[in-house]
Design a protein that fits this description.
Distance between the termini: 84 Å
Strand content: 35-45%
Largest sheet: 3 strands, antiparallel
Mean pLDDT: 87
Shape: elongated
Low-confidence stretches: none
Order of helices and strands: HEEEEEE
Radius of gyration: 29 Å
Structural class: alpha+beta
Helix content: 10-25%
Number of helices: 1
Amino acid sequence: MSTASARLPEGRYGRSSDEAADRKLKITGAVLGALLLALVGYFAYHYVVKSEISAQVVTFDASASAVQVHLEVHKDAGASGYCTLRSQAANGSEVGRADFRFSGQATEIDKVVTLRTTARGTTAELLGCHSG
């Protein structure tokens, strides 16, 4: 006994509704993917290129109630802003956090700042710098 095939002859009746839906989904996916890629590129460009301020902690020295932090800041001339520093104890709890402001025409600022702590700090971390 043979079974009858449920398939229609190819090319005889046009595209099935499933094929048309698949094509629309592929086009929609490609357009949304391109938009997402453009959006990520836009934000990456503004994050990397438009950054006016960068900084790094060169060294630090901790005492019982403060941490002396040697901070090096690179910025555009005339830009002003602040950098946020924090210190943590040996157990990982935060013992100090402060913002240090800067301004002026200098493009490089090399400064030792004092971060007051509630207990002995074992780290000095730069959380970020912002213009403003």
